[in-house]
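Pasting as-is:
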Amino acid sequence: KQLSMHLCVSPGLATHVVGDQFRLRQVLINLLGNAVKFTPERGEISMQVKPYMPPPEDRPPLEEAEYMVYFEVTDSGIGIPADKHASLFLPFHQASAGTTRQYGGSGLGLSICKQLVDVMGGTIGVHSVPQQGSSFWITSCFQKNTSEDKNMTV
């Protein structure tokens, strides 16, 4: 598809944290796969990763050993109407029947992502405008790795 792909990792991001690498990988592969699927030829996809501190009203205070990370996958794809955003994370829901016919899929991917992100102590969301693209983001809670064994990382 000759897509342009970019990765931006914040220089302030911790290099060693402990978390569920398998769930995180599944979520990110799904979000990146959707970006590729719904982005036309010569489009752009980017992923941003940075530390995250939720507002106090949104989450109990983090424990000293906890560390939050924000991941965002943005594409220049077809976009999604605002009235469809909330239903995207429900099982078997897609933006439209035409999307299913044209791009395939079961409508389970984002629902599974939501469940996995919930288990990882995070949140998932979307910002999207039709014909301008989409940004799907997640936050996830990790433990700071204070061990000498740096192989125990995400």
